[in-house]
Specification:
Helix content is 38%, strand content 29%. The chain is built from 13 helices and 20 strands. The chain has helices at 12-23, 36-41, 50-58, 63-68, 88-92, 101-114, 165-168, 236-246, 249-254, 298-317, 322-349, 357-372, 374-384; strands spanning 5-8, 28-32, 47-48, 70-72, 74-79, 82-87, 96-98, 121-122, 125-130, 138-143, 146-151, 154-157, 175-190, 200-204, 207-215, 218-225, 260-274, 277-278, 281-283, 289-290. An eight-stranded mixed β-sheet has the order 6-5-14-15-16-13-17-20. Strands 8-2-1-12-19-18 form a six-stranded mixed β-sheet. Strands 3-7-4 form a three-stranded antiparallel β-sheet. α10 (298-317) runs antiparallel to α11 and α12 (357-372) packs across α13. The longest helix has 28 residues, at 322-349. The chain is globular, with a radius of gyration of 21 Å. The structure holds flavin-adenine dinucleotide and 3,4-dihydroxybenzoic acid. 3,4-dihydroxybenzoic acid is lined by residues 45-47, 199, 210, 212, 220, 293-296.
Length: 389
């Protein structure tokens, strides 16, 4: 089989890249290890930057998002002795949109189904990328007990943190920088009305908590938990109890609880692989970088990578190589700023095992500064709503 661009991974970044390239008349194949139902059941991101919303709209998958997404013009930040709102419209001139990653992924699958692009190939095993440092790469894999080969001009690794693409780049070529945080986020999804119409990020003496949502009757909550815990260690009652103790008093009083319909613990890390291109292989999204979820940057970074790469690939397919030569540097320049912001916000809001009184006082002082300084709120807001592509 032959295609122009072989995309490894059918998560949000692989599907969005496939959609944009298809609309530009470029042939793609998408290889996904898991069944579609599994990809669609992974509860992850919830907050989309304005640039992400624009990209999805331009890719022809913005209609349901425009109808069903919640536009948020601010967020609440709370600590032991204060709770305040940061107004994105006032501080950064742009809102964010709350719309689940599962919905984005569903819209992208629907768009691929409705087009004449080749369907996503699910259930692939043993994906191997060959000749990425030549002009004639190819990809081999097994599906349904049969070996397959795809010849292509470019291979794009959209296969997440545990995928094969990054590891195809020789160790001598790639540099990896990592910080692992000494805690995780326990997330719960429940069919209950959200505690507030906006998100609440809470720094409490018992650890971080986040109140988020998916729609009027679907809430998403997180509490900081030891990374060694398992979801089973947290029966619903324990979770709600802990969340109530960490949220500001007014929210704790009105919190509506109910059975969880999903519960999972995610470790937190910052991880960056450089470069994001090696020969005819490019990395996109979580395959190249991971950020801690505080501030909701992961999916949005995957989308900005797709922006730079799709521009480069469309130009390259027309014979113009410069965009591909600049891909890694352009993407990484934006990635590092989001790495910084998500690290800063994580450090500001969480309890660390080796916390000292000094560290906690610094958190309190910084939160007070954010509350009192329009300049500090502008810095927060312009990063939260998303730096320009
Ligand atoms: P993935 O979603 O990981 O997709 C990779 C795909 O590749 C998967 O479908 C996988 O099955 C497939 N794959 C893997 N290996 C292979 C292989 N060998 N062969 C073929 N296929 C393979 N981001 C935000 O922007 N906002 C948020 O609010 C936010 N909240 C989050 C909350 C949590 C709890 C977590 C865990 C993450 C959150 N993120 C958030 C991050 C966001 O979910 C990720 O950044 C996003 O999923 C990255 O998309 P991706 O397509 O690059 O990778
Ligand atoms: C969500 C996740 C985040 O990491 C965040 O900062 C905000 C919201 C969510 O899943 O809704």
């Amino acid at each position: 089989m032959r295609t122009q661009v072989c995309i490894v991974g059918g998560g949000p970044s692989g599907l969005l890249l496939g959609q944009i390239l298809h609309r530009a008349g470029i042939d793609t194949r998408i290889l996904e290890r898991r069944p579609r139902a599994h990809v669609l059941s992974r509860i992850r991101a919830g907050v989309l930057e304005g640039g992400t919303v624009d990209m999805l709209r331009r890719a022809g998958v913005g209609d349901r998002l425009a109808r069903e997404g919640f536009v948020h013009t601010g967020t609440r930040v709370a600590s032991r002795d204060r709770a305040f709102r940061i107004d994105f419209a006032e501080s950064a001139g742009k809102p964010v949109t709350v719309y689940g990653q599962t919905e984005v992924t569903q819209d992208l699958y629907d768009a691929r189904d409705a087009s004449d692009a080749a369907p996503v190939i699910h259930g692939v095993e043993g994906v191997t990328i060959h000749g990425a440092d030549t002009d004639v790469p190819h990809v081999t894999y097994d599906a349904g007990g049969t070996a397959h080969r795809i010849d292509c001009d470019w291979v794009v690794g959209c296969d997440g943190f545990h995928g094969v693409s990054r590891r195809t780049i020789p160790e001598a070529v790639r540099t990896e920088v990592e910080r692992v945080y000494p805690f995780g986020w326990l997330g719960v999804l429940s069919e209950t009305p959200p505690v507030d119409h906006e998100l609440i990020y809470a720094n409490s003496p018992r650890g971080f908590a986040l109140a988020s949502m998916r729609n009027e009757n679907l809430s998403r909550y997180y509490v900081q938990a030891p990374v060694t815990d398992r979801a089973e260690d947290w029966p619903d009652d324990r979770f709600w109890d802990e969340l109530r103790r960490r949220l500001p008093a007014d929210a704790a009083e009105t919190l509506v609880t109910g059975p969880s319909i999903e519960k999972s613990l995610a470790p937190l890390r910052s991880f960056i692989c450089e470069p994001m291109r090696w020969g005819r292989l490019c990395l996109v999204g979580d395959a190249a970088h991971i950020v801690p979820p505080t501030g909701a940057k992961g999916l949005n970074l995957a989308v900005s990578d797709v922006h730079y790469l799709s521009e480069g690939l469309i130009a390259a397919c027309g014979g113009e190589a410069e965009g591909m030569d600049r891909y890694s540097d352009r993407a990484l320049a934006r990635v590092w700023k989001a790495v910084r912001y998500s690290w800063w916000f994580t450090t500001l809001m969480h309890r660390y095992p080796d916390d000292t009184a000094f560290h906690q006082k610094m958190q309190e002082a910084e939160i007070a500064y954010l509350d009192g300084s329009p300049a500090a709120r502008t810095v927060f807001a312009e990063n939260y709503v998303g730096l320009p592509f």
